[in-house]
Amino acid sequence: MEHLYDFASSRHGVFSRLEAQKLGISKSQISTRVKNDQFIRVAPAVYALAGSPDTWEQRARIAALTTRGLVSHRAAAYVHGIDGFGPSDIEVTVPKYRRPEGAGLWVHRTTQFGRADAQEVDGIPVTGIARTVLDVAAVLGPKRLNWVVDAVIRQELITWEDLFHVWVIHSIQGRNGSGRLRKLLEERYGDEQIPDSKWNRMVSDLLIDAGLPAPIMEHEVRCNGRLIGRVDLAYPDCRLAIELDSSRWHLNAESFVKDPRRKNQLMLAGWTVLTFTWADYADTPRVLVDTVKQARLTAA
Questions:
Q1: Are 129 and 158 in contact (CB under 8 A)?
Q2: How far is residue 66's CA from residue 100's CA, in Å, rounded to a whole number?
Q3: Which of 189, 221, 249 is the last residue of a domain?
Q4: Which alpha helices (H) appear in 107-141, and where do they start and end?
Q5: From 99, 123, 179, 201, which residue has the greatest number of CB atoms within 10 Å?
């Protein structure tokens, strides 16, 4: 039982029945301590240690456990320590099919709960920092959103690449806030600032999030032991190469000559070569994903 007290004490004095069971504590043991006033039932299957202080953080953790959701939006921004946010109304995000209720609780329902990047920060189940920025984009005006982005970049809580990625994977299904975040990103961040290696990772993450296997980055293609070339992303099992054309790295005289020659050699060696630009990634990510899926099916 001591380990349950340690667990709860490090999480604002709150635990769920499921968490207790994972620690080897039975329902009957919990009930006994409720009767003895050692535990207080604060919500269905959620308990607090007797004497634990009633704080905003404790109420936030109770809300997350009770709804089986995640603290989100402005409340999550406060938990993550983003400048400009304080303890206010507790907001939680839950899957679309759930309809929890609670006094003083602001519930957001989503079809993209699986993309919320669930984390535990200061003992509180919360949306990931990038998803949190996207969520607050849906409830804040453009000026305040700019302040939020300034803060997370200044505090080094997130990178521009992370913001681009979270926007892309959610914009496919039209997540609230995607439009505002996209406008901000277009105004403040350009293609020339994205090194190839980071863009490769971003596209790889997009494909993985869509259910595709992880592509191999910077893959060397050889034929009869001779190096034909290195491709940005590859699925060697079906000889599919993915090239990412950046105006910064590819639109120069040397690349203008070498890139088509390398592509020709790859095709002669039996490889299918797909080429995408930043606009493909930023404007039509669903088309990019569908094209790769179809190419894998065709090449298989």
A1: yes
A2: 8
A3: 189
A4: 129-137
A5: 123
